[in-house]
Design brief:
The protein folds into two domains: about 100 residues, RNA polymerase sigma factor, region 2, helix turn helix motif (Rna Polymerase Sigma Factor, Chain: A, Orthogonal Bundle); about 80 residues, Arc Repressor Mutant, subunit A (Orthogonal Bundle), CATH 1.10.10. The protein is mainly alpha-helical and about 190 residues long. The protein has ten helices and no strands. Helix 3 crosses helix 5 and helix 9 packs across helix 10.
């Protein structure tokens, strides 16, 4: 297969989301402050950033604001990108950090007690006709639990990475994940009956 045929005009391979590989020339231009290179990066990674921010915050307006914040920060920090990890992974980490910082700043993570986070969240009455999609299910979790479930189960973060992001222990991350998944199963179980 001809590798050049796999590359589009902007220098980004035809993969999706954060998995896109960035041509070195696009990164070099962005690191020199070329706004067209930043526009290319935004075009190819903006939707992935928005999707992750939305899954973590559960709010469209906040997710949009976070994408703007991440790309403005990218302009300031791209010179520090050394290429040790794929660019998409680096940007994904920036997006997750921004979302978690945003939730912390807005005191959405005030309650650090795992038992208290799930208190009062009894599964509502639901019938088999009720459609439950992943986004709606995730919305029914407290913000921290939603973030841990998304990062671990969807984005593939390890408990070590999650613990580092939240400034907590690995066992805390495992506990939040376990309780979040139990909560989701409790919601889904009546709908499947």
């Amino acid at each position: 297969m001809n590798r050049s045929a796999d590359m589009d005009m902007s220098g980004l391979e035809q993969l999706s989301g954060f998995a896109r590989l960035v041509d070195a020339s696009v990164l070099a231009r962005a690191q020199r402050g070329d706004m067209q290179a930043f526009a290319t990066l935004y075009t190819h990674f903006g939707q992935a950033c928005y999707g992750l921010a939305l899954r973590l915050t559960g709010n469209k307006a906040q997710a949009e604001d976070l994408v703007q914040e991440v790309f403005l920060k990218l302009i300031e920090t791209i010179r520090s990108y050394r290429g040790d990890a794929p660019f998409g992974a680096w940007l994904k980490r920036m997006t997750a950090n921004a979302a978690i910082d945003h939730l912390r700043k807005n005191k959405r993570f005030v309650d650090a007690d795992p038992d208290a986070m799930f208190a009062g969240l009894d599964a509502p009455e639901s019938g088999p006709a009720q459609k439950l999609d992943a986004a709606a299910l995730l919305q029914r979790l407290p913000p921290r639990a939603r973030a841990v479930v998304v990062l671990h189960q969807i984005e593939g973060y390890t408990h070590t990475e999650i613990a580092e992001l939240f400034g907590q222990s690995e066992s805390y991350s495992k506990s939040i994940l376990s309780r979040g998944l139990q909560r989701l199963h409790a919601i889904v179980a009546p709908a499947e009956a």
